[in-house]
Design goal:
This is Oxysterol-binding protein. The protein is an alpha+beta fold. It contains 13 helices and 20 strands.
């Protein structure tokens, strides 16, 4: 009896939990973008608790009815037992009476179990409500505290800048875009308002410009550390002076102006502190009408630097141009504070510009969580570039860190020189209060794996206290023996120069006890200079000339191409409300696809294994290979895309839009 009673109570628990408690569970087979706490989530939790209470009331009513009808049945059987009936019927009645007794005992056991469950559920329901109320109060308190700290920080910065005797910083102000209007404060900032990171040490060397003739005499005298000046680096002369003639194919030079919609980023981001940015559902209001695949393709804007590097006979000279190319990829980011669209899994983007740029580029989104894109570029001028970049991003309260993970490979076919480097960290500041601005920080090491030449680049963080030029980049190019040949300097948003080192020597120790290297160099040569932005760029998301053409409609591209993404196209046209609706449809479609993969995988393995299998996507145009130089597994181009385009055979492409 006891066993049956326990089984019955377990059935009641199962009934109640299946009817109500499953509302607490999120469908984790879909995209994780839905998991942000919001007022709607809190309302749903309150509704669930209320539904649970109602179900418990129904259960209590059922208990009362079972007890009532059970007692009536027992009385009826007792009355039948008292009647004079034949012996055969009496035996049958006795058996029925025994069964009724068993049912009464079982029902009583179930009723007692239900009462226990009811008391327990009511107790925990009150605990849940108190816990929920406490968490809500704590969250509101935390939000108010962070906002107040941001206001105080802003006030301290303004007070510091207006302090008497402080020299005016000559740097320009960053792009505008206040995301939060503090209550009770004037939201209008002075046009020269700037925000900086903490001070960091400047370069570890000192450069002294000298004349070629003077250093030649020193070299003849056997001065230690000198480098003979030769004409071998004449390719560097005018490396940046590549005329931009009219393109062979006429392309668009403008897009519709960005609508003036006001939306508070803090109202969304305050719920997401410490979370992965790609898992935060964001309206298109904070996007720009390009995907991450197109942003990755923008790195090729200054491809002429690599075309020039093909003709270098000196590997250290070639390294200078490769370094300038690596820095040039950041030049478009200085005003670009909007977020590109997260590509759908399997989304692609091609740039078929053999005629005017001499190259073909293909990107494919090969993973959704974490977001990862594979990229391959072929140039008819004799070089190829490939990379798999995984974007790791975290919101830290006042700033947003974007960390591209993965190695970039560049190979020159004629010489066999193979360069590898990684991107620096990008940081978006003043998420809460003030003007948004972006900074690039960290060190980049470029290695030529054939000659073992190296280039150490340093991106200096913006600082209140630094006397350096804003957004400064410095570097030194050394050969396999560690001997320095060139000094690089410039800024990642404007230009880069190189200067040939004629002599090097240690300096006297500074006040901090550190010793710097003094390089005597020839006058610097300009390697790269940023193209001016198109007219009206401030109303077109600060797009460069190349960026304006990336989303232009083209015939013959794959059905998975970013140009065909409907929400991105609607946003570009200025239809942001429709774009938000379309974005939600696409994300839900992607979640449904993942659920189907999960269901298919669940038939043959456990839940954890199925979830891992469901997250594994087999790219169409790339395949996982072991990179012998980095020791990492990365997606590399396996071929077939351009042949499929020529045949216009896209039957293998998934329907993602």
């Amino acid at each position: 009896m006891k066993g049956r009673g326990c089984w019955e109570s377990a059935s009641v628990r199962s009934f109640c939990s299946s009817g109500c408690l499953n509302k607490f569970k999120k469908d984790d087979s879909g995209d994780e973008d839905d998991e942000t706490a919001s007022p709607a989530d809190k309302s749903e939790l309150h509704s669930t608790i209320k539904s649970l209470s109602l179900k418990l009331d129904d259960l209590s009513t059922c208990n009362d009815l079972i007890a009532k009808h059970g007692a009536a049945l027992q009385r009826s059987l007792s009355e039948l037992d008292s009647l004079k009936i034949p012996y055969e019927s009496s035996e049958k009645l006795k058996a029925v009476n025994e069964r009724a007794t068993l049912f009464r005992i079982t029902s009583n056991a179930m009723i007692n179990a239900c009462k226990d469950f009811l008391e327990l559920a009511e107790t925990h329901s009150r605990k849940w409500q108190r816990a929920l109320q406490y968490e809500q109060e704590q969250r509101i308190h935390l939000e108010e505290t962070i906002e107040q700290l941001a206001k105080q920080h802003n006030s301290l910065e303004r007070a510091f800048r207006s302090a008497p005797g402080r020299a005016t910083n000559p740097t320009k102000s960053f792009s505008e875009g206040s995301l939060l209007t503090p209550k009770g404060e004037d939201s209008e900032e002075d046009e020269d308002t700037e925000y900086f990171d903490a001070m960091e040490d400047s370069t570890s060397f000192i450069t002294v410009i000298t004349e070629a003739k003077e250093d030649s005499r020193k070299a003849e005298g056997g001065t230690t550390g000198s480098v003979d000046w030769t004409s071998s680096d004449n390719v560097l002369d005018g490396a940046s002076l590549v005329p931009k003639g009219p393109p062979k194919v006429k392309r668009r030079v403008r897009i519709p102006d960005k609508p003036n919609y006001s939306l508070n980023l803090w109202s969304i981001m305050k719920n997401c502190i410490g979370r992965e940015l790609s898992k935060i559902p964001m309206p298109v209001n904070f996007n720009e009408p390009l995907s991450m695949l197109q942003r990755l393709t923008e790195d090729l804007e200054y491809h002429h630097l690599l075309d020039k590097a093909v003709h270098c006979t000196s590997s250290v000279e070639q390294m200078c141009l490769v370094a300038a190319f690596s820095v040039s990829s950041y030049s478009t980011t200085v005003h670009r504070i909007a977020k590109p669209f997260n590509p759908m899994l399997g989304e692609t983007f091609e740039l078929d510009r053999l005629d005017d740029m001499g190259l073909r580029s293909l990107c494919e989104q090969v993973s959704h969580h974490p977001p990862s894109a594979a990229h391959y570029v072929f140039s008819k001028h004799g070089w190829s570039l490939w990379q798999e970049i995984t974007i790791s991003s975290k919101f830290r309260g006042k700033y947003l860190s974007i960390m591209p993970l993965g190695a970039i490979h560049l190979e020159f076919q004629a010489s066999g020189n193979h360069y590898v480097w990684r991107k620096s960290t990008s940081t978006v500041h003043n998420i809460i209060v003030g003007k948004l601005w972006i900074d690039q920080t960290g060190d980049i090491e470029i290695v030529n794996h054939k000659t073992k030449d190296r280039c150490q680049l340093k991106f200096l963080p913006y600082s209140y206290f630094s006397k350096e030029v804003a957004r400064k980049v410095t570097g030194v190019v050394s050969d396999s023996q560690g001997k320095a040949h060139y000094v690089l300097s410039g800024s990642w948003d404007e230009q880069m120069e190189c200067a040939k080192i004629m002599q090097s020597s240690p300096s006297s120790p500074g006040s901090d006890g550190k010793q710097k290297t003094v390089y005597q160099t020839l006058p610097a040569k300009l390697l790269w200079k940023k193209y001016p932005l198109p007219e009206n760029a401030e109303n077109m998301y600060y797009f460069s000339e190349l960026a304006l053409t990336l989303n232009e409609h083209e015939e013959g591209v794959a059905p998975t191409d970013s140009r065909l993404r409907p929400d991105q196209r609607l946003m570009e046209k200025g239809h942001w409300d429709e774009a938000n609706t379309e974005k939600q449809r696409l994300e839900e479609k992607q979640r449904v696809s993942r659920r189907r993969r999960l269901e298919a995988c669940s038939r043959g393995c456990g839940t954890e294994e199925a979830e891992k299998e469901a997250d594994v996507y087999v790219p169409l145009w790339f395949e996982k290979r072991l990179d012998p130089l980095t020791g990492e597994t990365a997606c590399m181009y396996k071929g077939g895309y351009w042949e499929a385009k020529e045949r216009q055979d896209w039957h293998m492409c998934p329907n993602i839009f």
